[in-house]
Design brief:
By secondary structure, this protein is an alpha/beta fold. About 40% of the residues lie in helices and about 15% in strands. The protein is built from ten helices and eleven strands.
């Protein structure tokens, strides 16, 4: 390890860190308060720091959007950060541990100025309950998933998703929802058309609808925006059905899933699922190109 990197590691580990709820506490908070969440992972932090991004453009507008959402303090919105930011790696499998250690060693000192140390953040990794866990206790995960499902139990949902996401298809994760409609968006650069997506959501959403996003940093921003502007409950839950399918198929690695986009899959192995395309297309109320 280079001295400069080692120095950053020491600074990171012994710096002041934010307060972050556990995954379970985050879910319970959402259920109790029927609040929205806006999640900040490495992608959103990269936009704040104006670093290279895979799915959205690194520019002043997108940086300001992320800073604005991260700084929001509203009773109806829970801003979420990964608990890994606090050097909490004990329950992480090795690859996740090493990735987060390297990421925050490099970036924490730059990002720290944005943190509100008086605020208690939710855990942005609430959707990561299986493969990144070192201890994969079946009973514990099963109880956690049951709790997760309570967030949308008997709710009318509108999915806001990329065209390759097909959120919830090929599994029973959202079977307890009352109804599902979909607004399908492009797979990348959605922050460029955030205003268009926002207008389309407002066109179709009713006050009691639950808006569920799987749309990268655009989800982070629009969850904040629609909560403040329209008092809609918005859950930024990208990746949650991928994790669910990995769990129900007892995957050992982040593998591809047939017919769905799994950005972190880098193996030749593929999980085959049954997608009811007739049902999927019948749920689409709008498609944004």
């Amino acid at each position: 390890m280079k001295f400069s990197t080692f120095k950053k590691l020491i600074i990171y580990k012994f710096s002041k860190h934010p307060k972050v709820m556990s995954k379970k506490s985050t879910i319970l908070y959402i259920i109790k308060n029927k609040c929205s969440i806006s999640r900040f992972g490495d992608g959103e932090i990269n936009l704040i720091l104006k670093k290279e991004m895979l799915f959205d453009k690194n520019n002043d507008v997108n940086q300001q959007r992320m800073i604005e959402a991260f700084a929001c303090r509203n009773a109806n919105l829970l801003v979420c950060l990964t608990s890994a930011i606090n050097c909490k790696f004990i329950n992480m499998e090795k690859k996740s541990y090493l990735y987060n250690l390297e990421y925050f060693t490099v970036n924490y000192s730059s990002f720290k100025k944005n943190i509100d140390f008086k605020y208690k953040y939710g855990d942005a990794t609430l959707t990561r309950f299986y493969l990144s866990n070192k201890f994969k206790k079946e009973r514990k995960i099963s109880k956690y998933v049951s709790l997760v499902k309570e967030m949308w139990d008997q709710r009318n949902i509108i999915f806001i998703e990329g065209s390759d996401s097909k959120l919830g298809m090929g599994c029973d994760l959202f079977d307890n929802a009352k109804s599902i409609r979909r607004i399908v968006c492009p797979n990348k650069n959605c922050l460029d058309i955030a205003d268009t997506i926002e207008s389309e959501i407002i066109k179709f959403a009713k006050p009691d609808d639950l808006i569920v996003f799987a749309l990268g940093p655009c989800a982070t921003y629009l969850s904040y925006k629609l909560t403040i502007k329209k008092n809609l409950q918005c859950l930024d839950l990208g990746h949650i059905d991928i994790e669910y399918i990995w769990w129900t198929n007892k995957a050992k690695n982040k593998v591809s899933i047939e017919g769905k986009h799994a950005a972190e899959a880098h193996t030749s192995e593929t999980i085959k699922i049954d997608i009811d395309y007739q049902k999927y297309f019948s749920q689409i109320v709008s498609k944004i190109d």
